[in-house]
Each structure stands twice: as C-alpha cells, then as structure tokens.
Fold this protein.
Amino acid sequence: MKLNLGCGQNKLPGYLNVDKYDTCEPDQVADLEVIPWPFADASADEIVMTHVLEHLGRETETFLGIIKELYRVLKPGGQLQIRVPHPRSDGFLGDPTHVRPVSPTIMSLFSKRNNRDWKEKGWPNTPLGLYLDVDFEILNTNFVLMPRWMQKYQAGTMTVDELGEAMELYNNVVDEIHMVLAKVAA
C-alpha cells in the first residue's frame, strides 16, 4: 500500500488518498491528529506528505504521536516523502494554519544512529529516536530556491558557499524543503 496523507485536492493515482475533509473526496477520511491511525502496522511501502506536516501537531505530544504513527505504519525500509515550506519563507510564515516548522534538523532527531553519535560526542540534541523507539534515516534532502536566488546561482554570481550563507542569514532564500526518509528496521 502507498499512502498520500493529507491529500487535499492533490490525489495521486496508485495511492490511498487520505484527508480529514470529505469535501476534497479522498479515498479515506481520517484526521491525522487522532491516534491511532486506521492503518495496520507495517502496511505501507511509501507515505507521501506534501505540504501537510507543517499543519499538524501544534502540541508537541501530538506531533510526536504522528511521528510514531508514521513509523508504525511504514514497512521496514519503507520511504516517507515530505515536502514542506521552508520555515523562513513567506510560504510558511504567511499561513496561519502552519503550526510547526519542519526541517532536516528536526527530522534528524528521529534517527537512533544520530542519537547515539550525539551522545558519544556529548552534544545536547534531544534523542527523540531513542525516547520514542522510532528510527528514520534521511536519504535525501533538496532545497527549492526562490526564483531570484536560483537565477543568481545559475548565472554564476553566487557560489555554493555564498548561497549557504544567504540561507543562514535571510528569509525567502529557500521556498520548499523536500526530504526522503527511510524507516530503519528494528
């Protein structure tokens, strides 16, 4: 099974399209903030969440419950594809229904390998993978630049290092973040 969670009007062929609102006519109506989800353990080969995760889990416990459900429902080796607005973009900041920033840094907290590495180094990162008994590895991360910044980079007027510095200093450099995570087998 492949799940398109929070599908809205963007239904995908070959996926079980799930949304909280029946007005968008999903294949299945489900509120992703209500735990447990109506899917069996290890039943999904793939989960897609396109501009969804930033709308979920205003309360920390709810967000962590959603992460646990994603882990429970995915098969070992299954992939979680996440697309979110960059937390420092107007796309994120300008929507009052966005309740939580989502970034590679946040998602890396759910990796047991990272958690153990940070512990050995004495770093203070919260080992959420170990606390929640979930284990995701980030396989790929892509940053979609705003057109103005993409043009500068493609024209050769900015180096990769300068672009990285701009991402750290300014809003509206990155529009979206695309991440692919895999469930690590227990």
